[in-house]
């Protein structure tokens, strides 16, 4: 059986993984959702100094403190950045990395690099106007839907997501990933692609072409960008297959 460390994306905490973690445990796996500094129940631990390095340290220290080995490290969305950084530090404690609607970051890349200048400027304005200069509130769903599929999130799930989301420390978006940021050569690499990301991969976007080639193993999931909320059992099934 596998040991999963489940890392949530922006605005989320360990709570977002609850249903998927339960389904994994029912299959006999160890499933350990993680909340990053400044989010959910750890919101009061965040501050202007919270950045990408903070979240890389959160993941690294969690694995080391619990003396975990043979770890399958799972990243959703934004978590692709700190998980990539942590993977470079954890060495042979890791058996596998799984990117859920995400991808590994390269050295000197930040979340802000992934969006057009006008969108980045809009986020900066939002942080300045309503985030005390260091927090990024979760945007309205009509804004999120411009770049991330909401498929599978009925009104009830949207209400839960809105109610439990916490502002993201903006330093985690602006800080660039320090190099080297290479995944270990012997590390098993898995991609779970949902609707929009699957479309980008199938369109042959050059920046993502490597994800369609070995050693990457790709699994497609017919739901939107938050599969742990919209299709938790199906996501657990894919994760189970990936480690079998």
UniProtKB/TrEMBL annotation:
Pfam families: Abhydrolase_6. It comes from the Bacteria. Keywords: Hydrolase. Residues 4-236 form the AB hydrolase-1 domain. GO terms for molecular function: hydrolase activity. This is Alpha/beta fold hydrolase.
């Amino acid at each position: 059986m596998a040991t999963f460390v489940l890392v949530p994306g922006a605005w989320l905490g360990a709570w977002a993984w609850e249903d998927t973690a339960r389904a994994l445990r029912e299959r006999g796996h160890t499933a350990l959702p993680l909340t990053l500094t400044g989010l959910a129940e750890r919101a009061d631990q965040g501050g202007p100094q919270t950045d990408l390095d903070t979240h890389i340290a959160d993941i690294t220290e969690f694995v080391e403190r619990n003396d975990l080995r043979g770890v399958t490290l799972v990243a959703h969305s934004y978590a692709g950045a700190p998980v990539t950084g942590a993977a470079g530090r954890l060495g042979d404690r890791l058996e596998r990395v799984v990117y859920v609607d995400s991808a590994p970051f390269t050295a000197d890349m930040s979340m802000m690099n992934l969006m057009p200048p006008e969108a980045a400027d809009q986020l900066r304005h939002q942080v300045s106007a309503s985030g005390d200069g260091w927090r990024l509130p979760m945007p309205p769903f009509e804004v999120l839907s411009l770049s991330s599929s909401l498929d599978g999130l009925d009104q009830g799930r949207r209400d839960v997501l809105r109610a439990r989301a916490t502002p993201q420390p903006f330093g985690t978006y602006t800080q660039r990933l320090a190099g080297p940021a290479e995944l270990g050569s012997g590390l098993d690499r898995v991609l779970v692609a949902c609707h929009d990301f699957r479309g980008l991969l199938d369109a042959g976007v050059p920046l993502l072409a490597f994800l369609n080639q070995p050693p990457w193993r790709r699994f497609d999931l017919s739901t939107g960008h938050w599969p742990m909320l919209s299709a938790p059992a199906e996501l657990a099934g894919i994760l189970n297959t990936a480690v079998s």
